[in-house]
Design a protein that fits this description.
This protein has one domain. Helices cover about 80% and strands about 0% of the residues. It has twelve helices and no strands. The radius of gyration is 27 Å and the shape is elongated. The two termini are about 40 Å apart.
Length: about 280
């Protein structure tokens, strides 16, 4: 909703202001200028990106109008799941969670948290590193380093779409200039026609520059910033899991280990200690 509202404000302010000062909106309707700009940008995008990057961009664009998945309720569920796993490990040993981490879709412990189960990347991340803990062949420093590398790969994969959209935003003003130059060439080749028609050709040429700049800084660049923000928040979920697990491996009790993980969460989404405590009490009842 915020994305749609923002686009409406941008277009409304620009086109509305133009109309209020006496401009003719019909003069801005230049489909051939838009064809040159959009076609050039699309072609450049196809040249600059491979199949993986293109798929990532299409997938990312689908999430633009979706509400953020990272909420306070999600972090409460995540910390609760980690608390359940670590508490069982503390009471019954690491081997007691072997079935749960091998088959999370069949585990009663995992199935209590459907919001977490929706994110198969997160589930895979949790199960993979608890499986390494069960194996007992790696120390906390090795696992932490491996987790950092895993999170970096996740972040780099997420940046594919952001970089692709940013490159399109960077190129749109240039394609606007190209369209304007083509319009000027057309105008110069039409010298001798009546001044009213010549003025229309000049206006059409200038609209090309306008459209390129508007699409770059009014639409595509803000979309790339939004996707970058979503990526940052999604990365914090994995960091929360990492910090909690490493604290547990270093000997901290489950409740204290959760405090390490809770501190990684953004302040506006971070559940309070009392909220978690109340949630655990309710779960026990």
């Amino acid at each position: 909703m915020a994305v749609i509202l923002g686009i409406i404000i941008v277009l409304g302010a620009i086109f509305g202001g133009f109309a209020l000062e006496g401009g003719h909106l019909a003069a801005l309707f230049q489909p051939y200028e838009l064809l040159m700009i959009a076609g050039g940008a699309l072609g450049a995008f196809a040249i600059a990106n491979d199949g993986q990057s293109t798929k990532a961009t299409v997938k990312a664009l689908r999430t633009i109008f979706q509400s953020p998945q990272q909420t306070s309720a999600l972090y409460i569920d995540l910390l609760s799941l980690l608390h359940d796993i670590l508490s069982r490990v503390r009471k019954e040993g690491l081997m007691s969670i072997e079935f749960d981490i091998d088959s999370p879709e069949e585990s009663a412990m995992f199935m209590k948290y459907p919001n977490i189960m929706k994110d198969h990347h997160l589930i895979e991340f949790i199960c993979d590193y608890f499986r390494l803990m069960v194996s007992g062949s790696m120390d906390p420093f090795q696992i932490e380093n491996l987790m950092d590398n895993d999170i970096d790969v996740h972040h780099q994969d997420g940046e594919l779409a952001i970089h692709a959209i940013n490159k399109v935003a960077d190129g749109l003003p240039a394609f606007g200039i190209v369209a304007a130059v083509m319009g000027v060439v057309h105008t110069m080749g039409s010298v001798g026609i009546p001044p009213s028609e010549l003025g229309n050709l000049i206006a059409a040429a200038l609209v090309g520059t306008f459209l390129g700049i508007l699409l770059a800084y009014g639409v595509f660049s803000p979309l790339a910033s939004l996707l970058d923000r979503k990526l940052q928040e999604s990365t914090k979920v994995f960091q929360c899991v990492k910090v909690t697990m490493i604290a547990s491996m270093n000997g901290y009790a489950p409740t204290l280990a959760l405090e390490f993980g809770r501190k990684v969460v953004s302040a506006n989404l971070r559940p309070t200690f009392k909220e978690l405590e109340a949630h655990f009490r309710q779960a026990k009842k």
